[in-house]
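User: Quick one: structure for sequence A, then sequence B.

Assistant: Sequence A:
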Amino acid sequence: MGVVGTSSFVVRRCWFAFTVFSVATFADITDLVDTTTVLGRDATLFCSNSEHSSGFAQWSDITVGGSPVPFATQADGVRRVPPETYGKYANFDLDSGSVTQLDLKISSAELEDEGTYSCTLNPDTKTATLTVEIEGAEPTITVDGYSSGNPIILRASEPSVLRCTARGFRPAVTLEWYKNSVQITTGVSPEAPTPNGDAFDTSGTLTFTPIRQDNEAILECRTTGQVVAPAKTAPLTLNVQYVPVVSVGYANEVITCSSDANPLATNHKIILNGTQVVKEFTTSQGSHLFTPVDGCTVISCNATNTVGTGTATFTDEVCLGYVEPTTNAPSKSPSTTKSPPAATNSGAVVGAVVGVFIAAIIICGLTIFCWMRKRRERQKPTRGQSTTGRDGKGYFKPDRQHHVELQRSGSNMVASSSKDDQPNGKCFGMILIENFSVPAVLDMLLIQICLVNMLDFVI
């Protein structure tokens, strides 16, 4: 084997051994991550390799120019000389409790400590960035360009422009508005941050139109956007002033008047028919005894504060004999006129059926009456002669004229009554009693009951 061959063989063997040694011996660096701290606080950049036992280990600064500048080694610690080169790291220290650990500790971090640093635990190298935040002052809020105390005074239904300013933050923050801990997104106008030395100032406005229910609400301007520095908040209580809201009532001949106002109403008036002032008072509630004499009266009440005057009118005119509604009566709603139900023929049909059945009852009753009367006449010898038969038994022999009448009546099933047989003004019930037996009357009643039941079933 020649020299060249031998050299090539040795190189290959060395490279193989180095590769196997590197893979088998060293693992990646762990725990090194970007870190944020606040100006004046401590910070630590963690760097460890569980399988590092010996070899090169150091920290380098790659903030300037991108080229690593070593400033600390595991063997020598942090280099602090010459000052012109390493003076920046006067507050840096290494925490190397074991050969596998090389943490970098920064005490009372300064803005110049910000930067990107690399840790090398042979043969692996990783980088991390240190950020130093500046905690700014509490935000301030002005209203319509004027400084405002706490609480701030606003007028209901009148828009106001509130400006929030947060000064001295690094990095620049953004501003958010809240009312009673609920974020406001309408009417918010952010502005670009402006430099303030090593920090930034941020401002933004909120166009806000309060309502009377916002009185005593909590309005806040909060900073957001920093990692470690706590958010700053400017809380304010709203003093929303509004025209009095008046309530007027009438019960038991007493007029009552009250108001809800901010500031409180200083004058109240109970007025009749729009012009007649019957009582004035300064408290928030008052009453007046009133009994209507004649006609009707319109009752109203006025309340006045520094914002304006509110008026309320009782819903009903109070007239002589006025009856107050019950306490649980439903509230009035807009009057509506209902159309009458559409005409139908059902009533006419029912009436016709009733009439037919009543007529049927009367006809049946008269028919039964006439039939029973005729039957009785056949059994009573009113005309002709009584004679004796061959067997000695008596029998009735009608005369020729009466015999003819009986034949006619038999064919027609209705007998002609003589003048003496007429009811002579007696009622129908008396005729039944005089002419019919009890079973006959019961039969007629039974028939009528059946007809009535049929009528009820049809209806």
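Sequence B:
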Amino acid sequence: MKTVKHLLAFLMIILLSVFLCSCSQSAKAHAEKAIKKDLDLLKNLDSETTMQYISYQELFPDSDDSTKLSADIKEVFSLFFQNFDYKILDISVDSDEKNASAQLKLTTLDAEALASDFVSASLQEEILETASGKENDNGNSLEQRYLLLYKLLKNNTYSSVERNTSIQLNNLGSSSEPDWEITHSSSLENDLVGGLITYLSDPDLVPPAETLTVYLKTLQEMDVKQMANYLGLDSILNTSDSAKNAIASALMEQFHSCFNYKISSTSVSGYLAEVDAELTTFDSNSILTQYEKELNTYLASADAVIDGSQKRYNKSHELLLDSIRNNQATITATAATFHLTNDGASWKLENAGTELGNAIFGTLTASPVPEDSTEDNE
């Protein structure tokens, strides 16, 4: 009789274990179904689901407006999630089947590379707007930032990366009629976009050396008016008349024909940094030396006396233009040191126009031909 009782008790334990295991497996299956339901919609580029998980303003919390984005701009997330994928590694359900946790492996676009490109492109736009004399009141708008993000995603190719994440779920129903729902959180939101939110808020994402590179590359894209305005070289890069315009154009040709750079070292102390770079540019001393030589020869001639002040003024411009056009000498400045400051959002070059202008144009930051040369003092 005892044997029968023990056997029945053993069978009851087995049946209870099977029942509990069956319930647990059922709960896991329902939780897994809830995960797949939402994440498959992200894979299928469902904008409504994207809006549930990704707050458009969360990417740029410092944006100064809350304007609703246009349908076109919302395509940013369609581009971002076009290669999105996931794999459920494990699901655990609490004994009361009210809460569950799932471990996932996410495959997302390389958000760090995208964020780095975004910060660099934003700085480039800011530099060019300053150089053009524009005051962009919308520079901090949500719309403009997403337009830039859209442009990067549309024109660039980014590799895929993997990261693990944990998802929490709540059962809003019961054990018999479960209704599992993923718990939304800022951490999950950040993981779903590959850490993009974290990367965009990192003030050191683009380090000082790379920041300086953005400034130098952007200079190479400027036209003569932009460069004159940005570097404060209105005197030497003056386009107000044909003679001055020819000189400005010749200097720009000199700049584009030989300008190069190499970052040699960086030192950072808190929010301050110094970047040393070797800049190869035209030899302004050589141009000035040749100009002054030719000018002195001319001024010592009888022609200079006969010409009068206006012709001497015009001749000075001609000689300067010839000296620039005929110059083939370049110089590599090994001690060009640039100072940068981190404003809490990113690194910026201090006194950018002055530092870059002096480093590139050297002794030719101002025209050697005085504006009062037209006065006839004879």
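Residues 110 and 158 are 6 Å apart (CA to CA). Residues 208-374 form one domain.

User: Thanks, that's what I needed.
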